[in-house]
Amino acid sequence: MTQTLRNWARSETAKRLRREITFLATLILIVLAARSSLADHYHVPSGSMLPTLQIGDHVLVNKLAYGARVPFSNLYLVDFNGPIRGDVVVLDSPEDGELLIKRVVATPGDRIAVSNGRLILNGQPVGLSSGQAGLIENLDLKPHPINLTNGGGPDYGPRLIPDNHYLVMGDNRGNSNDGRYFGLVERSSILGQAVAVFYGRGGFVWRPL
Question: Based on the domain organization, do 30 and 59 belong to the same domain?
């Protein structure tokens, strides 16, 4: 009788262990799927987006901003409108697949040129003004600070942006490895929209982008 009870207890323990492992594995899969297709965060490793983003900032990324993807893939189940000019996005680098964070400065159908770090969009210079953060670029409805030190980086274009492609650049124009070097980015390479900084050097913050 005692041996029977022991066998039963071992059997119940094994069942409970299997249930716990199955639950944990399912939970991990759900979290990974959510990070793949719903929301994630990005840690800023460089100064290419200064002064908008500081080195070490943690950024919340909305991966549903431009469509609903099949988890762990670049295939869209539902495709929303693509990025608009001024959006800060996280993307796969066309060079090596590394994750990058840049600003969309030109969308399909735009004719874009860059001179001394300044944008010339569809034949018109994008306006600059002065603000507390320095130079403010007034790109559509998303004014944002930029840095034009080091000459603003290489010139680009003019070029007509084809369908399904985007030009992305860093706000630190003179110190950014961006579309002026690696070329246009395909729509499928843009993984989501950077919504806000939620953690920086001073701790938890909420700084919308």
Answer: no
Tokens representing 6 are 């022991």
- pLDDT tens digits, 79-105: 678 899 999 999 999 888 789 999 999
Peptide bond before residue 162 is cis, with ω within 30 degrees of 0: no
Which is catalytic among the residues 37, 48, 176, 189? 48
Number of domains in the chain: 2
Q: Could you tell me the CATH number of the domain that includes residue 138?
A: 2.10.109.10
Q: Could you tell me if 200 and 41 are in contact, meaning their C-beta atoms sit under 8 angstroms apart?
A: no
What are the tens digits of pLDDT across the range 55-80?
Answer: 999 999 998 888 767 665 566 666 67
Annotated catalytic residue within 37, 63, 102, 189? 102
In this structure, the answer to whether residues 74 and 140 fall within a common structural domain is yes
- Mark whether 49 and 18 lie in a shared domain: no
- Catalytic status, residue 130: no
Whether 142 sits among the annotated catalytic residues: the reply is no
